[in-house]
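Input.
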Amino acid sequence: MSSIQHSRFLSALAKQPVDCTPVWIMRQAGRYLPEYRAVREQIKDFMTLCKTPERACEVTLQPLARFPLDAAIIFSDILTIPDAMGLGLYFENNEGPKFKHRIQNMQDVNALSVPNVEQDLDYVFAAIRLVIKELPSHIPLIGFSGSPFTLATYMVEGGGSKNFHRIRQFLYTEPEALQLLLEKLTTAVTGYLLSQIAAGARTVMIFDTWGGILTTESYQRFSLQPMSKIVAKLKQQHPNVPVILFTKNGGLWLREMSDSGADALGLDWTINIGRARQLVGDKVALQGNMDPAILYSTGDRIRQEVAAILDNYGPGSGHIFNLGHGIHPDIPPDNVKILVDAVHELSRTKHMATI
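Output.
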């Protein structure tokens, strides 16, 4: 097997020369693939699928068999940590995740124990080890976690939310309780990501899905600060493992995020990637940021959007092409192939002078 260091994806994360822009897709293993839906016909319960390493491995690899993607991401869920903390995670059809028990006050936070990640989340690491055995050597595996604030949001809301009134109320009426909850989650996320790296993940990504609902001051205190602590711990033990931070609707705070110690920032589709590159300079690589809804359109329109994003980023390395958030479940797989091929084809001329 050839060395993993020749990965196009890892080279771009390090802002080193590449032959073309690498591409992977958030939620690339999932409901838009008929082969994934076939697995779900056999395993109806989502968490059972996540907790069965052999099937999680199978699902992780499915998009790699279809498309020439430059990275895999382990099939799992961001709410594995709250589940391991005993909140009773379950999924209802068309309603998303819910918890049997939600966090309401300091007493609830005090009662929470930080999970023993090696023991309580061993199924994730087992799946990672299985995937590593099957992946081509030039395709690295991405491990991931939800950010402490995003996990806290689900834990306080009791599931998903449209207006986030519970977490907003909790932030302003019980800030000490929220701070303690975030400290416990920061410890858990750090251990979880370290164990994913130990199992074979070559990169880790922190998904801060709900940090963008906060004010600037609250974002820095309750979202960015915990993530920065996690990055520092990861870098202390694994300085050569890249870390990607992604805050949905976080375009206002890219400069602050670039000071976190992370190697790359994920971008949603609400900011121009060229503008983002101007803001962060050479501090970090950038990942993103096509609107997932473009994949509903024609092949010509998809190629047009790919070209526009590549042009906006400009020449040179340091760009990983991705969607600005997860792929929608009713996207035609053929359009994903058009996207991946277009990124590789149209970006080659932008890298010819650097390799």
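The first strand starts at residue 72 and ends at 73.
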